[in-house]
Specification:
heterotrimer, A mainly alpha, B mainly alpha, C mainly alpha, B: mainly alpha, 3 helices, flat, C: mainly alpha, elongated, membrane (chain A)
Chain lengths: 187, 89, 104
């Protein structure tokens, strides 16, 4: 589904040359371990006996997530500032999206003018692309229908209005969550 | 009206909504439509479970809701991986 | 504000949120039944439904027995959001490419 970034051989070679390999690996390992431990704590509660199952599960989850993520670039840390900007936008737009759909289907004659529009995202990070695709589907009037060769097919409930400004705004916000700055005027 | 009675009433309304949504599973027309309606059923089902969990004071029902959510995601992914003639093979 | 007033305010907010949630669930179901094709139905499913669940969970939040339960409610919503949006994308992709077993 996601286009893998080009192989990053030179990066791995650089790491092997001097010896921070272990600390780098630990840096990849620890945040995930903490995340999954917290998740288990939330799911199973504070009962100590739950760790009989919890400890192997957390370790297994950490290892498999590391394995699945190995193709991603390492500098994938989420930016807190970007996240704090994205979340209120996301909540407001979700509510607008729900009201939009409800108002379209709850009238005597359904008011839609559906169609497709292509959009080429400029996001590099695979995680950013997934967040972008999922956010499109939750925004008012748009649905990410397909992604092929770096082009997203967006299905719109009302194709009459131009979707590009909205999509670019969303893309900028998503980019900022992953530390990628996109200039105002692209495309 | 107490909150318990209110939440129970809402759960009932949601159950009726779920039942109406079943119509889409019956009429289809494509398997994708039926899958979608089943997903709607899952989301509504989670809503009913959470309302009952609070109204009846059974916190463990939230674990059932979490399993519902996970199964819905897995079943949709599995469904979209099916191909023509795969079942006969 | 004294304690009964606060409790009453919380209950009123809770009732309003839950009613809004039910409204979006109903809108989602009506959308699934009335909209003409699979893509427009997916719009109704992803947006109205996830918002419905989110509002109901928000309404139940003040009645949570402990903090773990409250975090779990939030976790459940995030899970359904991701699952719903990704599932809708997969179903749409499959319908668009026509590689499913329902297209002959």
């Amino acid at each position: 589904m996601i286009a893998r970034p080009p192989i990053r051989n030179e990066q791995g070679a650089r790491k092997g040359a001097n010896s921070p390999a272990l600390s780098a690996r630990l840096l990849r390992f620890l945040p995930r371990l903490i995340l999954f431990t917290a998740l288990w704590l939330v799911i199973a509660g504070s009962d100590p006996s739950s760790w009989i199952i919890g400890l192997p599960t957390v370790l297994f989850a950490t290892l498999s997530s590391l394995r699945l993520a190995s193709a991603q670039p390492t500098q994938s840390a989420l930016r807190l500032g970007g996240l704090l900007r994205f979340l209120p936008f996301f909540v407001v737009e979700s509510i607008r999206g729900g009201i939009d759909v409800a108002s379209r289907v709850l009238r005597p004659r359904v008011r839609i003018n559906p169609g497709f529009q292509s959009y080429r995202p400029r996001l590099d990070h695979p995680g950013a692309r997934v967040l972008f695709l999922d956010s499109i589907s939750l925004l008012p009037g748009t649905l990410s229908a397909d992604m092929r060769d770096g082009v997203i097919e967006v299905h719109a409930l009302d194709i009459g209005s131009d979707l590009v400004p909205e999509l670019q705004r969303l893309e900028r916000l998503v980019g900022r969550v992953f530390g990628q700055t996109l200039e105002e005027d692209g495309a | 009206m107490t909150m318990v009675a209110f939440f129970l009433a809402l759960a009932l309304v949601l159950l009726i909504t779920m039942a109406v949504g079943l119509v889409r599973i019956v009429i289809g027309p494509t398997p994708a439509d039926r899958m979608m309606a089943a997903q709607l059923l899952g989301t509504s089902g989670i809503g009913v479970l959470m309302l009952l969990s609070t109204a009846l004071g059974i916190p463990a029902l939230i674990d059932v809701g979490l399993i519902f959510a996970l199964l819905a995601a897995v079943s949709v992914a599995a469904f979209t991986r099916r191909r023509v003639g795969q079942d006969q093979a | 504000m004294d304690e009964p007033t606060i409790a009453l305010t919380i209950n009123i907010v809770s009732v309003l949120l839950a009613l809004a949630g039910i409204f979006f669930y109903i809108a989602g179901t009506v959308g699934i039944l009335r909209l003409p094709d699979i893509f427009t139905r997916l719009h109704a499913l992803t947006k109205a439904d996830n918002l419905g669940l989110g509002l109901i969970l928000l309404a139940l939040l003040p009645h949570a027995p402990d903090a773990f339960y409250a975090v779990k409610l939030f976790l459940l919503w995030v899970l359904v959001l991701i699952g719903g949006a990704t599932g809708a994308h997969l179903i749409a992709k499959r319908a668009l490419r026509g590689d499913g077993e329902d297209i002959h």
